[in-house]
Structure formats: structure tokens, C-alpha cells
Amino acid sequence: MDLTPTSFYNYYHPDPLRVVTAGEQFRVTKKRKRVPINCSLCRIRNNCIRQGGTETTTCVYSAPVTSEIENIQADSNTEALQHRLDRLENLVLTLMRGEAVVDARSASATTNTGSTSKADNVESSTGAHRGQTPENIRTEDDNIDDLATSLGVLSIEPKNGNTVYIGQEHWQTILTDILELKASSARYEQELGASYEKIRLSKPLSATAGITLLQGTAPPATEFELQAALPSRIVILTLCSRYFESIDNPVVIVHPGAFYEELFSHWENPSKTSPMWLGLLYSILCLGMLSYHRVGDEPTAWKGRTMEMAVSFRLRTVQCLLVADYTKPITPVVETMLLYTFAEYATRWDADMELWLLISMVTRIAIQMGYHRDGKWFPCLNPFKAEMRRRTWALLTMADVMFSHQVSLPGMIHNHYCDTVEPANLSQDEISPNLEFLPPSRPKDELTPASYMIAKVKLCRVMSDILHATNRVDGTAYEDILRLDTRLRQTYDDIPEHLRGPPLQDPQETAREIMTRFSINSLYRKIVCLLHKKHLSFGRRNSRYAYSRRSAVGAASETLEHLAVLIRESQPGGRFQTLIWFLKSMATKEFLTCAMIVARDLYHDCKVEDMNLQSMSDASSFWTSEQTIKMINNLEMTKNFWKSLADNSKEALRASKMLEIILAQINRTGMGIRHN
């Protein structure tokens, strides 16, 4: 779903079921009268203009407010006060679409009759002072009873009743308080709408149609037809070899030795081959052909036909799943459905809600088959099967958290009910179906085909816990955020250096090594951003949270810096021009959050500098001039890279447009020139 920053909630609605339509005039309501406090701008000798629209200047001094703060202070209960402050940190502005939005929080707020919920009064503060941001106006002594927690956005289309919920972690919610985006939304939404239709028409049907398995559009087929549709043996061996040579994580869930034994057995006696195993074969053929398509090094005989052939193999995979009845817990249904999921994912540039539905279905089937419990507990599983199940569960864990995060919705897997350990760091030839005992894992510094998966699943498990914590409807204490930060950094430090350092280290390195390290590095820094994102605004006003601001913006900026280097080196004639497909595939899935965090921080810094309000923020000293220039340059390159992908990706188009508006505002203030 595409979100537009067209309006904000400043107060909760008394009626939890009230729907705000697009044409309804925005109106502020309060649950109870509050004693106003004196204007924060008066404290720094600036004029105050009332929200009513008159040009008269009035300073209002409130009577002493008897609030719970005073009661807590009177009791010297600093721990309770800090807890309430931590709850206040979860205050986030809520986006709403132009059609209709239901304030999700109001339903739960009605049960808490002892307090009044209130968001930052954006309309008041921004209307009163030219371009001033709510961050700079809100003060720490606002009544601590005024608590709110964003529960995301609920969009209802009146025409067809289409109802979609998007969680508050969506990348576009980072920019909800940028006035220029709000003012320009109507104009660029029309441009985007026309461009979206152009993108849809330019793509093949396989990239725009829904997921075949969920849509039920696959024509029925018999086992005999599926057997007969297999390509020649030489084609099968070529594509299987291509699949097993890939660096992608799905490779390790299928053991090449065991698979080739089963393949030769199939050729000897096809009648004994199960439809589900046939589906596994078709999914491998599909991924192998997609590898040729994205790199562009396909054999001459397949030139220009790789996508068409891959889609054909993918359709056969679906037919095999249907013939075998994928709802039944039979081997290898989980592996086949996982590979099919990645075959669908490989042809989609943007986040896809159907992928989230598909991976949640695969997860439930895997749990039904006990993949979430470690194989060591079950004597019926030999060491080889137990180890391969660990690899499959690791890939499923990563897919669950990544696909869920991309659509800003909860994942299916919770680590507290799983005890399946990470796979062993072993090469493929060290394990086989006839193993009596699993050999000891190699040192973590030794590179094996499983090393990348092991490192990534460790980070994804921490990411899962972080998303569950930061999206709690009752909030998360800042101390818990810091504990998760420590755990995340320890996990990252435990990853071998050759997997987590800067992407470009040695001119002699292979593309495989660079891609692996860049992926791990980017994932870690994105998790840092997600952990500290909610405290960015607080970090501008309160030194207690400056660590969160520096961590999130610093991690985001470093990610964009690495991306910029790889973009330059991946251009025609560059050292790593074969990596361009990899960067394009990650561009709108891994870097959106990072770019928006950097853009938002620079935007508010330029506003502070433009209004000469350094006394309200440490923006003038928080980042060095060199850091500021580097962030602006990296945003420019990221924007241009997304613009180059705009013909294929709606999210790249929208993100590039948003960055264009923000960077134009930054350049108008001369921020880059002042820091140069």
C-alpha cells in the first residue's frame, strides 16, 4: 500500500469507531480542558502568534498545574517518573491516507479513562511559526499525562471497502512531520499515479500478476504431464549446477550430493518419484534460470528467453504443489515452498503483501512438522536430516522477519518458542545422508557455504526480537532499548571479520565476497536504525537520547556511503559491474529506511540553521561539516540511483521523489554551501 503524508492526527477522537473522510475538515478536539502552559518560544525571546490566525502577540502564563509529575516528585519516586517518561518516548505522529482512516489507538485509549491522550500539535506549531518543526517547539515540561502510541495507519477505500493496515515501522512514516512533503503531496501524488500505471504496463504479466499459488490461476495438471514437461537431462544438469554455484541462501537447504542421487534415481525409475520432489526439482530449475536472467550471462540458445522459461518452471512448481496437496506435512513440502517463495520474490522489485501471506503459510506448515524444535531431541531424525532441517529453519526465520518488515506487519516466528540452533559451519562434502555423527563445526573464521547463512540468521533473530519490542502497543522502556542495542552489537561483533567489514577491502576480492559482506553490513546497520528510530526526535532535545540519534543516523549514513561506493564501482567499466543486479535487487528493500532517516535529520538541521535557533538544538555541533556534506552527497547519489530504477519500481519512484523535495529544501537554505 502507498502511504501519503497528507494529514496528521493531533488528538485522539472521543469515538473510537469514528471514521475521518478525505473531504472532512480537520478539527482538533480535546477530551478535557487543560491549563495552557507558557509558550516555549517566549523563553528564548521570540514572538508568539496564537493559532487563531491573528497577528497579535500574547504571552499566556498558566496557573500551576497539579499533575502526576508533582505527585511523583513529592513522593521522590524517580523510578516511576522515569517509567512514565519512557512511555512518553513512544509518541509518534500518525499518517493517514486521503480516503479514510480510523484512528486505531482511540479504541484502546477509551479503556484508559484516567489520562488524556494527545499528540504533538503539529498544525498549531507549524502554522504559528514559519516552517518551524514540532520537534523544536515541543518542550519537556508538557504534561506527562499526555501519552500516545502510534499503532500505524488503517486505510479504508469507500468505493470498494478495501481495508489495509500498515504498521508504524513503515519507511514513509519517518517523514510525516516534513511540511514540504505535506504541501506537495497533492501535486506529486498525481504524478506518481500516472507513473505507476506506466510501470505496470511496462512489466511482463509474471511481474505484476498475483502469486500463482495464492491466486489459484494455475491450470490443473496430472503427474504424467508434469513428468513429460521436464526439459532434457543436459538442461536439467546445467540449471542445477547454476543453482548450486549461487551465493544465495536458498542454496544451502538442498544438499547437492543427496539431491543428485535422487535425481539419478528419478531418471532410472520416474514412476517412483513423488510429485512433491518433482516440485522441488522444478523450483531449482526456475532459480537457476533466474540466475542467468539477472546476471545476463545466459547461453546463446536461451538469449532473451530466460525469464519466460523461469516463469514456466515456476508454474510447474505450483502444479506439483497442488497435485501433491501442499497442505499435508510430507517431505519435502517446506523446502519446495520456500524455494517457490524465493522464485516469486526474485521477479518483484517492491515489497509485496502476498509474499508475506505466502511465507506465513510456509511457516505454519514448518511448525506443524516440528522444524522449530531442534532435531537433537528426536531419535527418528538422523544427524544429516537434523542438520538440513536446521538450515531450512534458518532460511525460514530470515524470510519471515524480512518479508514481514518490508510490509510493516508482524512476523509469524517468535524466538521464545523455538530452540532450533544455527546450522553447523560445515562444507557440503562433510555431511551426507549416511552420517552416524555430525562432525564438529569448523571455526567461525573459516569460510564455508553455510557461513553467510549462519551470520545472517543470528542478526535476523535479534532483528525479530527488536521489532517485537519496538512495536509493542504498551511501549518499551528506554533501558530495554539499550539492552537490545548491547545484544545487537555483541552479535555483530561475534561475526567473523571477513563477513562484516566494509564491503570493499581488497582489490583482488571476488564479487561473491563483496556481496556477502555488504549484505551483512547493511542488515546490521538497518537493524540499528529500526531499534533507535523512535527516539530520533527525543535525541534532538534531550541529551539522554542523543546516543539513539547518533547511532541511527550514523548507521544509516554509513550504509548509504557504502552503497554510493558500490554504485560507482558497478557502472560500466567499473571493477564490479557484474554486481549491478545485486544492488538493484536490494535498492528498494534494504535502503529506504536508512535514506529517510538521514534525510529527516538533515531537514530538521537545515530548519534550525535557517531560523537561527541553535539555542533550541545542538544541530550546529552534533555533526561535523564533513559529515554533513557527506550525508548530503550520499543522499543525492541514492536519489539518482532510485530515479534510474523508477521505470521498474513504484517504491523507487516514490522514494526518489520524496528525496528530491527534501534535498531541494536543504539546498534552498544553503546548508551544503555553509558546511562546505
TrEMBL record:
Keyword Nucleus among record annotations: yes
Looking at the record, the residues that make up the Xylanolytic transcriptional activator regulatory domain are 355-429
Region Disordered, as annotated, extends over 106-140
Q: Does the keyword Nucleus apply?
A: yes
State the GO CC annotations.
nucleus
Q: Which GO terms describe its molecular function?
A: DNA binding; zinc ion binding
Q: Which InterPro entries match?
A: Sec_Metabolite_Reg, XnlR_reg_dom
| Chief place of localization | nucleus
* Annotated keywords: Nucleus
Organism in which the protein naturally occurs: Fusarium sporotrichioides
Record's signal peptide: none
- Listed Low complexity bias regions: 106-119
- Protein name, per record: Fungal specific transcription factor domain-containing
Location in the cell reads: Nucleus
**Example GO BP:** DNA-templated transcription
Question: PANTHER family given for it?
Answer: UNCHARACTERIZED TRANSCRIPTIONAL REGULATORY PROTEIN, ZN(II)2CYS6 TRANSCRIPTION FACTOR (EUROFUNG)
